Prior knowledge:
The complex is a heterodimer.
Chain A: H1 6-30, E1 40-46, E2 50-53, E3 59-62, E4 66-73, H2 77-107, H3 115-131, H4 136-195, H5 200-216, E5 219-223, E6 229-234, E7 240-246, E8 249-250, H6 263-293, E9 295-297, E10 306-308, E11 318-320, H7 337-380, H8 384-418
Parallel strand pairs in A: 9-10
Antiparallel strand pairs in A: 1-4, 2-3, 5-6, 6-7, 7-8, 10-11
Chain B: H1 5-32, H2 43-97, H3 104-125, E1 128-129, E2 132-133, E3 162-166, E4 169-172, H4 177-180, H5 190-203, H6 210-256, H7 260-285
Antiparallel strand pairs in B: 1-2, 3-4
Helix pairs in contact in B: 1-7, 2-3, 2-5, 2-6, 3-5
Amino acid sequence: MVSTFHGLELGKRGLAVTQASITTTGQNIANANTKGYSRQQVNASATPSLDVWTTGGKSGQLGTGVSLDSITRVRDVFLDRQHHDQASTLGESQVKQQTFDRLETIINEPSKTGLSSSMDKLWAAWQDVANEPKSSAAQTVLKERAIEFVNTAQAMDRDMTYAIDDLNLQQTNTVRDANELVKQIAELNGSIKKAGNQANDLLDKRDLLVGELSTLASIKVTANADGTNNVSLRKADGTAGTELVKGDVQSDSIVDGSEASGGKLAGIIESKAIVGKYQTELANTVEQFVTANGLAAASAPGANLFTKENAAFKVSELNANLTISKDNPAQNANGDVSKVNKSFQSLVSELGAQSQSATNSVKNNEAALLATDNRRMSVTGVSLDEEMANLIMYQHSYSAAARFVSTTDQMLDVIINQMGR
Amino acid sequence: MRVTQQMMHQNSVRHMNQNLSRFEKLNNQVASGKVLSRPSDDPNGVSKAMNLKSTIAANEQFERNVDEAKLWLDESDQTINQVVNVMQRARELAVKGANDTLSASDREAIAIEVDQLNEQVRQFANTKVNDNYIFNGTKTDVAPFPNADSYLTDSFDATKKLVTIGEGVTVDVNVTADQIFGKSEDEGNLFKTLSDLAAGLRSGENTVSLETIDISIDRLLGTAAEVGARSNRVESIENRIQDTMIDLEARLSKIEDLDYAEAIIKLKSEESVYQASLASSAKIIQPSLMDFLR
């Protein structure tokens, strides 16, 4: 026999589940724009039914209402993984592109004030000196052109050194940020472990941090049964490197970023090598050029147009010979200047080509990341239209369940107050 | 595919950004008039443009050098012609002085004029252009014949002064003193001829034959012809440099200058694309089911 108050219990369960659904809808709407939030859904199922006797001597099943099984977040871990991979590639190429951008600004070609034009001007000054060897004006102009060349070359060299300094600073900061993220991920894993793996909002927060970490370094993430996960750095061949997080424990930290195979950190380290390479190439070009024009030790400048302070050539230690004048006319070393011009041109076009491909790679990776992000948002994102439709639906369910309770109430009123009078 | 508001928002923002950045780039090109502003715009083009600029700078210098060469050659030519006039006058005086009917005082008067001619020749030999002595080789700051008897010691410098007027093309722009006045031991050295003539007139013994004077005039005329030929060569090279310059400038312009008509049409189309993306974003972002549930 079914309890008299069965209907009230059934109605109550219905009210409770619709209320939870409405609250969850409210939560989704409230977090529609929250970064890293994945929409949540209420999973409900019918409660076990009661066996009741029917006339045929067989038992029938009478429904007992609904129960709330779980509130889960809608998320696709495979899309997450894909997103991590693309985020680290993009992080790496963005830093490289910024570096090339900066190098292009430093090289300052094509322009009327760059190194190339100051080499042309110096060549022209030699011609005037050849035309009028005894003219003090021609010697002065030549000396000034030499000073201009030294200034231009040194400004470029110095800016490249600054660029490397900035990258070093960026590297230190990024390593610190990454280690902070690693620490937070381990802490959140700890909270998730305590709360059980239905801790949707904690999971979202952790996944957001893992996503951020993936832009700094290429990582490999494996999930554990208790909702926590393990995070390792990924090597260039795809295998796992240093394990940073193991469940709720931070097992290691990033030392200087050189162990990262992708992400911003790898980009910074590659960028340093790139700037270093161009600085060396620039120094070679400058050395060839001044040697072709006459280079001597600063202690014994003679009639050479340029002097260097030490035996080993350094752009920062290059000077124009200020003793050049009508009485100490400059002696042209008559080297092949056009060859130096050509080598500088090839340096510039190499930089241009590399910068162009870095820009393209950023564009491509951005597009790929956006496509994955779109797919991920298509799964996990909150659609306001959907939530509004659900809200109306749940509102009606709630009214109907309430109505059911009052109907049962009226039924009981009949039994209790009006029967047997 | 399930579409969410955040997705649409993100996509709209990204597309608006892309359109705006293309718009901005074109705008920059139109404002600067240059297609190339950094190496990555066209790596190959930038390197070509740099090469052309260097070549143009070199050619500009060659043009200046040609001007210098022409100045020297013209000045040399004029001076030689003047010296020829002097020598022709000297020849007339030599013919006149050979007349036996002249008195000693008449011959003295002629000798004085010859002395003057000698001094005039020395002044021509010390001609300066732009404060440079043109007949003293590369020692342009020193007079080749500082004194009247300097010629006896061949005090001049006979080095060729070379001017580069093209890639690997040089021309010697000076004529050396021996080509005009002759070395001290040469027959028909101008200074020697003139002073011998004056001395002969004074002593009454004709020591200078007309042939000697003719030899000196011939040397002058030969040198003048050579200078003329060099002048022609420099002029033809000047023409070639000017033609090359026009060609180089045109090629540089083709690489780095903007085609305004094309750029402005593109700019207009980018502008409308940008506005369309703004309009469509405004339409897409605004409405949701909420606007219709009242």
